[in-house]
UniProtKB/TrEMBL annotation:
Binding site for [4Fe-4S] cluster 1: 46, 54
Family: Belongs to the Ni-containing carbon monoxide dehydrogenase family.
Sites where the protein binds [Ni-4Fe-4S] cluster: 269, 305, 343, 451, 481, 522
Cofactor list: [Ni-4Fe-5S] cluster; [4Fe-4S] cluster
Species assigned in the record: Thermococcus guaymasensis DSM 11113
Stored NCBIfam families: CO_DH_cata
Name assigned to this protein: Carbon monoxide dehydrogenase
Length: 632
């Protein structure tokens, strides 16, 4: 149903990505609202919420603290600004860590099913990685077949979620030893993923932990459980099941949708279903079926991180990042958008009702009213994938041909730079990278990650920071919606070396890599941790000593809060381009941007201006180089 558009969006200014403006204009012509329209309707947003000063943790509230001190300074229970802000942040970290880790649990269950020979549609693809992880976790692989190793590994990994006792997480064996010492000293070694998340909720219940320092330290502990175990497990097991990514060419942006094909979008995060959809859709049977319905075939494109998963392993084109999910439907050319979980706007159902698109939810934990729900079950993966693809094909004749508009823009990108792929490009050893860093050919490495947020110009900060850094000879790696933004801007094409400084350009040309490397989906921020850990160990230093930094220029999700916190916990100087809801407490803001550095070696830095942010990040890198005695 067309809606009354109360506030018009200045379409030409809201995005740095080609094709977005024309679809926002089309949305308004079609009477369809997008996230940008709804953000305008939300203005003015609650200042208490923006400052983190609102508490709803019990029914004596909600309580709000007056940031100017002339109104209430305490909630009904007596909690002040510092407690409330820290508690709210801890709950964000808990939710983010839960999302990543529950995703890992789902992959681990499929992995266990494969190990036990119960799941016919999945297999162990990267056996080398399986063995290497097993050995790192202390599982002997000698004289054992791959399924036996996998069974033992599955048992250990199951324990990561809820093992009893105070023993550290087993996956911490992947972290550098110097880091472990820092975490031990700070008392933030995580014991079990679910336990730390559960403790976040307990501590933030009315009348438990009121000390902002103690609350934030538990946030650090929980985030480490996410980064070094939950997310790490999702990455490792996805690689073992579907293959460790290698450089692969694909196309990016909404122009990957095809006029005469059945277009299917896979959206969400988990590769367990999306990989199957791609396999089934590309089968001769489904391609032929599409022809019977008048199409030339079936075309699958990705969105957000499940898009990244199938992009980096199968070369599936990527249609866009978080803020483009509604726009894909607004093209009028998408027969089905198939979602698993995380970052799926419930609004896609409303948008889809204005066209012919079927929204198909598949996860028992992620229903959306108005969508078709076809529950996924790994035991019947291929049958379910076929049923879903068939629905999309049968919907092709319903396409509203007079309302179809697919932007022309698409661009080639190279994705799939796992740590293993980077090592392979380097000739099997970190030495060439270390030498280039040491002699200043490359000044440093920055991991850029995270979301889109309609509060800032779409993809502008993502690409601006990346360009500002590569021109200063800083190698940029990244994940999530940043990597899609960079791909759509051409920064993942070998031609982007022309935007790099002379040193980085030389290295990229020698290795035949772009200056911005796609390392995967949100959970694959764990690959950045592994890369930094390996570099630090090879140099005999700790991660905070490296000329490296992190950035989340357009973050919005709770997962991004957890990622940012585990970057800081891992010793990384971490930039946030959107102000987090902590400014209601000077104490909490100071801990996060100053004091935490003395505890774990990393800290947050908040700067909305991407050019200024890149300058500061570069200066931090130069300071680290000075301390290492490396040329500037
Ligand atoms: S926990 Fe305290 S501050 Fe929060 S709502 Fe209850 S009374 Fe208010
Ligand atoms: S980067 Fe952010 S918006 Fe994008 S898929 Fe990940 S959590 Fe969602």
């Amino acid at each position: 149903m067309a809606e009354y558009i109360k506030y018009r969006v200045p379409a030409r200014g809201v995005s740095a990505t080609k094709g977005v403006a024309e679809l926002i204009e089309k949305a308004e012509e079609d009477g369809v609202k997008t996230a940008w329209h709804r953000l305008l309707e939300q203005q003015p947003q609650c200042a208490f919420g923006q400052l983190g000063l609102c508490c709803r943790n019990c029914n004596m509230g909600p309580c709000r603290i007056d940031p100017f001190g002339s109104g209430p300074t305490k909630g009904v229970c007596g909690a002040g600004a510092d407690t409330i802000v820290a508690r709210n942040l801890l709950r964000m970290i808990a939710a983010g860590a839960a999302a990543h880790s529950d995703h890992a649990r789902d992959v681990a269950e499929v992995f266990k099913g494969v190990a036990e020979g119960r799941l016919q549609y999945y297999r162990l693809t990267d056996v080398e990685k399986l063995k290497s992880l097993a050995e790192t976790l202390g599982i002997s692989t000698e004289n054992k077949d791959e399924h036996e190793i996998a069974r033992e590994l599955a048992e250990v990994l199951e324990g990561e979620f809820g093992k009893p006792g105070d023993e550290p997480l087993r996956m911490l064996a992947l972290a550098p030893k110097k880091r472990i010492k820092v975490w031990e000293k700070a008392g933030v070694i995580p014991r079990a993923i679910d336990r730390e998340i559960c403790e976040c909720m307990h501590r933030t219940h009315i009348g438990v932990d009121a000390d902002p320092v103690s609350l934030l330290l538990h946030g650090i502990r929980t985030s480490i459980a996410d980064g070094w175990s939950g997310s790490m497990m999702a990455t490792y097991l996805s690689d073992i099941l579907f293959g460790t990514p290698k450089p692969i060419k694909a196309e990016a942006n909404l122009g990957v949708l095809k006029e005469d094909y059945v277009n299917i979008i896979v959206h969400g995060h988990n590769p367990i279903l999306s990989t199957k959809i791609v396999e089934v859709a590309m089968s001769e049977e489904m391609q032929e079926l599409a022809k019977k319905y008048g199409a030339k075939g079936v075309n699958v494109a990705g969105m957000c991180c499940t898009g990244n998963e199938v992009l980096m392993r199968l070369g599936v084109p990527i249609a866009g990042n978080f803020l483009m999910q509604e726009l894909a439907v607004i093209t009028g050319a998408v027969e089905a958008i198939i979602v698993d979980y995380q970052c799926i706007m419930p609004a896609i159902v409303d948008v889809a009702q204005c066209y012919h698109t079927k929204v198909i939810t598949t996860e028992p934990k992620a229903h959306i009213p108005g969508a078709i729900h076809i529950e996924f079950n790994a035991e019947k993966a291929d049958e379910i994938a076929k049923e879903i693809v068939r629905i999309a094909i049968e919907n092709y004749p319903n396409r509203p041909r007079d309302r179809v508009h697919i932007p022309k823009h698409k661009i080639e990108a190279i994705a799939g730079f796992s740590v293993e792929a980077i090592l392979e490009a380097l000739g099997g050893t970190l030495e060439p990278l270390i030498n280039a860093l040491r002699d200043g050919t490359i000044k440093g490495i920055v991991g850029i990650v995270g979301c889109n947020n309609p509060k800032v110009r779409h993809n502008h900060s993502h690409v601006t920071i990346a360009k500002e850094l590569i021109k200063r000879d800083v190698l940029v790696v990244g994940t999530g919606c940043w990597s899609i933004a960079a791909a759509m801007d051409g920064l993942m094409s070998p031609k982007a070396v022309d935007l790099a400084g002379p040193g980085l350009k030389k290295v990229c040309e020698t290795l035949n890599i772009p200056p911005c490397l796609h390392m995967g989906s949100c959970v694959d921020c764990s690959r950045i941790l592994i890369a930094l850990g390996a570099l630090a160990e090879a140099l005999g230093v700790d991660i905070p000593d490296l000329p490296a930094a992190g950035s989340a220029p357009e973050w919005m999700s709770e997962k991004a809060v957890s990622i940012g916190t585990y970057f800081v916990a891992s010793g990384v100087f971490t930039h946030l381009g959107v102000v987090p809801p902590v400014m209601g407490s000077q104490k909490v803001a100071k801990i996060l941007t100053e004091d935490v550095e003395d505890i774990v070696g990393g800290k947050f830095y908040v700067e909305p201006d991407p050019v200024k942010a890149a300058e500061t990040i570069y200066n931090v890198i130069i300071e680290k180089r000075k301390k290492l005695g490396w040329p500037l």
